[in-house]
Amino acid sequence: MMRPKQRQWRCFHCDALFTSTKTAAVHFGATEVNKAACQLKDYEEHLVVYIRELEARLDGYIAEDSHVMRAIYTMEADHRQALIRAEEQGYNKGVQDAQKETAPCQQRATTAAS
Question: What is the pTM of this model?
Answer without folding.
Answer: 0.41
